[in-house]
Design a protein that fits this description.
By secondary structure, the protein is mainly α. It is built from 6 helices and no strands. It has helices at residues 4-11, 16-21, 27-32, 37-52, 58-76, 79-89.
Amino acid sequence: MITANEIFSIIRTDSFFENVFHKEVDWDAELDARDKAEFDMAWNSSYEELNEIDSSESKVIRDIREFAFKQTFRITQNSELAGLWDSYLQGKFPK
């Protein structure tokens, strides 16, 4: 399994977030998709994987969340999309 440090290294590359967000995507529709069962299943799976990571990496995970929030807002200027990361940082996860 990939470690949190490896994830952080990957997302810090110059083009990672640009490749995600500089696409012709209806971000409002994507945000609305969080209400669908597919998102819920994927989210729960990812959340469980993060919980299995050694607790010594928890600072790295917080750093990943902060970096993702800042990069998302920088690129999209979409406060709801960036706020999604902020919510997760504060421990507010969709159920």
